[in-house]
Write a structure and sequence with these properties.
Blueprint lengths: L2 H7 E7 L6 H11 L22 H8 L1 H4 L2 E6 L2 E6 L9 H6 L5 E7 L6 H13 L3 E6 L8 H12 L2 E4 L1 E4 L7 E4 L4 E5 L5 E5 L9 H5 L1 H16 L5 H5 L3 E6 L8 H11 L21 E9 L8 E9 L1 E3 L3 E4 L4 E4 L3 E5 L2 E4 L2 E3 L3 E6 L8 E3 L17 E7 L5 H14 L3 E5 L5 E5 L2 H15 L3 E8 L1 E5 L14 E4 L5 E5 L2 H10 L5 E2 L6
Parallel strand pairs: 1-3, 1-4, 4-5, 5-11, 6-11
Antiparallel strand pairs: 2-3, 7-8, 8-9, 9-10, 12-13, 12-21, 13-20, 14-19, 15-16, 15-21, 17-18, 17-20, 22-24, 22-25, 23-24, 23-27, 26-28, 26-29, 27-28
The structure holds guanosine-5'-diphosphate.
The site of guanosine-5'-diphosphate (GDP) has 16 residues, from α2.
Main location: cytoplasm
Keywords: Cytoplasm, GTP-binding, Nucleotide-binding, Protein biosynthesis
InterPro entries: EF-G-like_DII (IPR053905), EFG_III/V (IPR035647), G_TR_CS (IPR031157), P-loop_NTPase (IPR027417), PrfC (IPR004548), RF3_C (IPR032090), RF3_dom_3_sf (IPR038467), RF3_GTP-bd (IPR041732)
Length: 522
Amino acid sequence: MSIQDEVKKRKTFAIISHPDAGKTTLTERLLLFGNLIQSAGTVKGKKSGKFATSDWMEIEKQRGISVTSSVMNFPYDGYQVNILDTPGHEDFSEDTYRTLTAVDSVVMIIDATKGIESQTIKLFKVCRMRGIPIFTFINKLDREGREPLELLEEIEQVLDIETYPMNWPAGMGKRFLGTFDRHEKQFVQYNGNEEETYIPYNNLDNPEYQELIAQEAFQLANDELSLLDEAGDKFSLNTVLSGKQTPVFFGSALAPFGLQTFFDTFISMAPAPAPRKSTEGAIQPDNPDFSGFIFKIQANMNPAHRDRVAFLRVCSGKFERGMSVKLARNNKLIKLSQSQQFVASSRDTIEEAYAGDIIGIYDPNAYQIGDTLIEGKDLFEYEELPKFPPEIFKKVTAKNVMKSKQYRKGIEQLVQEGAIQLYYQHRTDSFILGAVGELQYEVFKYRMKNEYNVEVLLESIGEKVPRWLQADQVDESLFDEQNLLVRDREGNYIVLFRNEFALRWFKDKNPNVELIDLLEVN
Ligand code: GDP
């Protein structure tokens, strides 16, 4: 098969949601479709309490699926499906954001009983920033939830994206009858089990369906549907692919209901790998020379070795195990002899891969996040990965001042690797660390001790709201211990506002100071 044909088959996506919306349950259903698991309920158990902070392997073990199945891949209906996990819960970290730089589309799960929640908004903003097409699955229709029209309105208003319901639910919870499939023009009846009945619109007049269509929930949904047909946005695949319209599917991951239709439609519409921007212009995915970039580095995955695995997204050409590539940052030649693919709980060796695929490569301490690896003669680098705003900040010091050399070296390397972010407090130059989630601190502390033999002290300065500032707009008198002025490693000024309220107050008082939110940058 040609490289071009291989690329066309690839569907690489992530599932984003707020914790408990049903990501694990839905993922499991997709793995069933891919025959990767035999029954639902097998990838559970990740939420078995808090991990022990003292033991890295314990962290790994407790995190279960989110580590070993960082990437799940399987053939489906002629396609090669790659699902990237976006760790949530206590694992929410910068890696969760960075994963979104390696996918071609995203499935956003919304809990029908709750609507849009905070983590969904953050992850959505990253997708928006990168123009990633978003497909929405509104989950838990088997429970009494919010009105479907209200949910759509919320998506449009809060996320500022057009919605197009692909199906429309008749009732919810105990009254749930099924959905109108606008795409296939059929009513999909919910029978209270895995079997769904597909009734073409034309057949709904048949006497056997009289009872169904007489029900209030059916009538109401039918009326709403007419309203949507007349006044709602029209479906446009181009608008979807440019990230400005989201197709919305209603269903239930648990019941289960509506999953086959959702997945089939999603897979047929989701984009295959596209050309990717580089310092030498766009690189075509079917370009014969292999290239890719590293979006995540995971330390100590193997208990027997203290090794690291770098996650690489293939962007062009053909990856073959044992091939030699150049690290574009320093033009060094590296042989990729150890490579892994991640499937559910096992890791298989991978022999070849194409654009869209994710491979795990052994990291001899050579890689940084964002690194480009290339095979051809032409040197280029893929565009830099964006910076993501941390939310939790802590002052860091070494417990033992005699160890300041290792301390600095450790911090420098871990920061460079992208494990955590470093800031300098203005004037005092104290070190302040920033992370998206607590887990990053656990890992930082553990690795400082185990890899650099330094015990660190972390002093929480709480959750802050960071905003970047132009250097010529820095007026020190405006900031204090509450709204802290710091610099990042590139020397940019940042204010760590005490909270959203302090930020709004500051904006009101200083309308001329331009504050930059990294999640709003295009
Ligand atoms: P995650 O945190 O997003 O991975 O969510 P999970 O998949 O672990 O689901 C969280 C809880 O919601 C679990 O108790 C699931 O059984 C439940 N759940 C998931 N999908 C549905 C659904 O469609 N209907 C109902 N009633 N519960 C669901």
